[in-house]
Amino acid sequence: MSAVVQSAAATDVEENLTDGFNLIIDALKLNGLNTIYGVPGIPITDFGRMAQAAGIRVLSFRHEQNAGYAASIAGFLTKKPGVCLTVSAPGFLNGLTALAHATTNCFPMILISGSSEREIVDLQQGDYEEMDQLAIAKPLCKAAFRVLHAADIGIGLARAIRAAVSGRPGGVYLDLPAKLFGQVMNADAGKKSLVKVIDAAPAQIPSPDSIKRALDVLKSAKKPLIILGKGAAYAQADDALRAFVEKTGAPFLPMSMAKGILPDTHPQCAGAARSTVLKDSDVVMLIGARLNWLLSHGKGKTWGDAPKKFIQIDIEPKEMDSNVEIVAPVVGDIGSCVSALLNGMDAKWPAAPADWVGAVKTKRDDNVAKMAPKLMNNNVPMDYHGALGVLRTIVKERPDAILVNEGANTLDLARGIIDMYQPRKRIDVGTWGIMGIGMGYAIAAAIETGKPVLCVEGDSAFGFSGMEVETICRYKLPVCIVIFNNDGIYRGTDVNASGSGDPAPTVFVKGARYDKMMEAFGGVGVNATSPDELKRAVNAAMDSGKPTLINAVLDPAAGSESGRIGNLNPQSKLKKK
Fold it and tell me: What is the pLDDT of residues 346-364, one digit of tens each?
């Protein structure tokens, strides 16, 4: 055990004791969970101190939601549950947003929160920050557990770990009432009560029939398309995925967090011909991707009039037929499924039809050529294309860096413009398309990978988590933040139609200097007003590894409503009518 409490019994024989604090710490360390993201406070302040003293890295944030986002993306990057530690009630609720986000995005995460005692909560007696946290968490995560006795800590954490990573990964809530931490028990019994989780995420082998069916459908395709989702990136089956895609010869379309499994510059990549391949393909194979709103639910104008057959690889059987008929469902973990597909492809596997591959290549090359001049402009003030053209070159020169990206236009344009060359190097807003993940993701990416981080933010998105720049400076992390500052949400030119003195709801302070925030905490702040200045500043930051924030001044008129999803606003639909 990490610590032993000594107590003289009535028989004058000393008994070695331990307590809840040490049992939780030992259980975490036994299972290789050596990093905690959180915010200290009652009743978990002492636990954070003790965990740090015992060799666990404890990262203290300024807001629980950001700590939760850090834990969630740590789970994605490592395939181990990221751990977030919060105080009770309001702190728990702040972390709960990130837990729900982790569950929706299939990231393994454990939210551990201190709480009021069970008997007080049940009688509603008005304890400090009293709340039935377990009941609130249950609908929003994959599993939720409460530990009431020190002897059950080992089992409680083991169940949380297994639930988080097995099958389709997700968020798990672990409720630890304040009284639990101080519970005392025999040290030897406590050690025996701990559980080292064995084979937490066992391989799920697909059935041979499903593999044969999928290959038969794929072989029959005249216009095949493979779509790679972030589940494929999470699987870390990179070599098998690349071998399979290349053996099919089919165009592939990576979703944003799957970019880099194969380089975006790969000859089969159809990222620059997205509309064409979605509309014209006849057989679509989904690997770790869901037919949700990000793919227009597999139907409608996006997918054109041509009849389509869908093959889907997913570890969750209930995902099949969720929007359209899946003619060849393959249920299992992605590594096992792709390996089985490769083994089922004989040496005479036919090449993808040359006319289809040629048509996609022509469309892709045309679109790339049309975009190139926009990315090379040196306009002052900058527009999105000029600024992103600079960052595109920097990422090409530094393919090992982690790119964090959020915003409206900043997100939508960046994921199409900035090519990725390695897997799990691009992390962004995910399934919900939410803002606020930026600083938490950046911190966890730096901590978990040891790589430099380039965080590209819209000025609105940055506002959700901007105070964490102090956290970045405090831990001296190699994070370079670039804020695309166009004075507002979408753009900074909207006008209040009422004529009152208030600014429009989407407009921020004109000429704001976000770089000064970083300087206030001892980091490097730069105000960049041209593409050339932006390039110099980002390269200097990436070379130095010092916490840096670059205020990239964009034309306030640059940007469009909601990026590319303005059609989801009801008023936008009314205008079209």
Answer: 888 999 999 999 999 999 9
